[in-house]
Specification:
By secondary structure, the protein is α/β, with parallel strands linked by helices. Helices cover 30% and strands 27% of the residues.
């Protein structure tokens, strides 16, 4: 087994290798002056079971292209099996044709990964679970929830209510509420645009309770901050937000600085610079991904990685 990393999140790849107990594979990745990417695998991979760690976070197109080139280089170097490890799967929000003349880009990316030479996909907290069906190769879809649960159990927040910031996240919120033995509520929202959300109503009781908002990703943080404002106006005490992928841009960072969210809990699935003025707790998923890689390589079951406290993570 060998693990290689693109440039999108090398610290996570090193942490995964440390968990498994192997060295990170050596490769050279550089850009030509015209923006083209050059990759050279610096060690023998003939007949090896190879894993490439590369979340397709911003700059999404560059990181995707780098991943395709790495997979192609490994295929041409006669690796026996290539698994693309995508802790964050970009373009996942373009998963259906919801208006005329638009692409289903999540499916296009799936096709391109297979065309590049990927034999298997390992990913985490997809925005839409049906994306697993876009692939004709095996996909292991993990959840960051067990890592989050552990932290929240230790935190032991009293009078907790788990809140889904939109109707689409009810299943995830319900799983959290079951394990944490907390109440459940939903924020019914209306989206104005891709960056603006108008929250409408709260279904459930939050007055005088501590709230945990759960979502799969935050970029502009419009959904989270609007929901937090509404919950605060309904009498919620402390507000925590739990998101698997914090791919925050400048708009999102500014919104979080001005928001009523007391703590943002996320993972290291994407590489993110330090952010001042926002209370962020980053939990590592290196152990979760490392264990999945070890089991996949040894042809063992990964089912137990989906469970926590006797319940399904997602």
């Amino acid at each position: 087994m060998k693990v290689f990393s693109g440039t999108a999140n090398e610290p996570l790849a090193r942490a995964i290798c440390q968990y498994i107990g192997i060295e990170l594979g050596k490769c050279t990745i550089r850009q030509f002056p015209d923006g083209e990417t050059f990759v050279k695998i610096e060690e023998n991979v003939r007949g090896e079971d190879v894993f490439v760690v590369q979340p397709t976070s911003p700059p999404t197109n560059y990181n995707l292209m780098e991943l395709f080139i790495m997979i192609d280089a490994l295929r041409r170097a006669s690796a026996s099996r290539i698994t693309a490890v995508l802790p964050y799967y970009g373009y996942a929000r373009q998963d259906r044709k919801d208006q005329p003349r638009v692409p289903i880009t999540a499916k296009l990316v799936a096709n391109l990964l297979v065309a590049a030479g990927a034999n298997r996909i390992l990913t985490m907290d997809l925005h839409a679970q049906q994306i697993v069906g876009f692939f004709d190769i095996p996909v292991d879809h993990l959840f960051a929830a067990p890592v989050m649960y552990q932290y929240l159990k230790e935190k032991n927040i009293p009078d907790l209510v788990v809140v889904s910031p939109d109707v689409g996240g009810i299943k995830m919120a319900h799983a959290y509420s079951q394990v944490l033995e907390a109440g459940l509520a939903i924020v019914a929202k209306r989206r104005k645009s891709a960056t603006e959300v108008e929250s409408m109503a709260v279904i459930g009781e939050v007055q005088g309770r501590n709230v945990l908002l759960v979502d799969d990703l935050a970029e502009t943080a419009g959904t989270l901050t609007a929901a937090a404002e509404l919950l605060k106006s309904k009498g919620a005490k402390k507000i925590y937000a739990c998101v698997s992928h914090a791919i925050l841009n400048e708009v999102g960072i500014q919104r979080l600085r001005n928001s009523v969210i007391d703590e943002l809990i996320t993972t290291d699935s994407v590489l993110r610079p330090a952010i001042d003025g926002v209370n962020i707790t980053t939990l590592s998923v290196a152990g979760l991904l490392g264990e999945a890689i070890r089991r996949i390589s040894n042809n063992l079951s990964v089912t137990s990685l989906f469970e926590f406290g006797g319940k399904r993570a997602g």
